Automatic annotation (TrEMBL):
<feature type="domain" description="HTH araC/xylS-type">
    <location>
        <begin position="189"/>
        <end position="285"/>
    </location>
</feature>
<keyword id="KW-0238">DNA-binding</keyword>
<protein>
    <submittedName>
        <fullName>Helix-turn-helix domain-containing protein</fullName>
    </submittedName>
</protein>
<dbReference type="InterPro" id="IPR018060">
    <property type="entry name" value="HTH_AraC"/>
</dbReference>
<keyword id="KW-0805">Transcription regulation</keyword>
<dbReference type="Pfam" id="PF12833">
    <property type="entry name" value="HTH_18"/>
</dbReference>
<keyword id="KW-0804">Transcription</keyword>
<dbReference type="InterPro" id="IPR009057">
    <property type="entry name" value="Homeodomain-like_sf"/>
</dbReference>
Amino acid sequence: MTFQSTLVDKNEVIMESAYEAIHSTTAGKYAIQMIFNGAAAYTIANRELNLYAGNFIFLNQDTSYSRKIDSERRVDSMSVRFDPDFVIDFEYARTAKTELLLDEPESHQRKAPVFVEAIYPLQGDMKFNMLNLKKYLDQGSHDNLLLNTYLERCLVNYYAIYNEEVISREASLNFLNHTTKSEILRRLSIARDYIISNYNKNICLEEIARIACLSVNHFLRTFKQAYHQSPHQFLTSIRLRQAKYFLRNTDYPVNEIVDIIGFECTSSFIRLFRNSFHVTPGQYR
């Protein structure tokens, strides 16, 4: 196991490569945790989640959690832990009026933001920024000014994702009361994370609705409103995304990948993959 921790003022970047590892982390900092290959099992309050390669999870400053890695293949991960004051100042600079920032920078009441904790795909600008940060640290560079720029960009990227995946989806729910919208989306996010964490298992609709503490019909209706697809369609998209990862990064034969991601029939998988991406799995590889 290799373990590297880099302090950036009161922020921290932790990189790890391991086959086996157990971490119990106390609350105190906001955290973005990502997996580059392999998987890690998380226990967050009463939630059991699996974070797979190509995804990241965001955790609030008051969230305690544990993480376990137990893998035949090496798991590479990175965690960016933000000091609350850094996030609060970022939020203040983002939301305060320009006149206030210029004339009375210390007069605005600053509050620690609370985010909907969820699993997101590591892609786009977030992936580009995180891979460059990892490369920079792998080279042994430690310019604090540049590192702080990376961390600020990380928050910029996260806020963009959060606006798309939480704020916009919350607004699309057909409820008049804002509190109701927030609560429904929170429950849907829990269900969504459960699907992502168990994408390779035979999970049923009733089980997912129970996780969300919603009736099956209510869950189906609101999930489609928020994510513009049914839970089954969402599960299929996650399985196909993971199939692309295995095709790119492993030498597993296609029929073995089909089994790993939870499909039952190789021919139907190949047909669905071709219809979704306009290439066969072999051509994609």
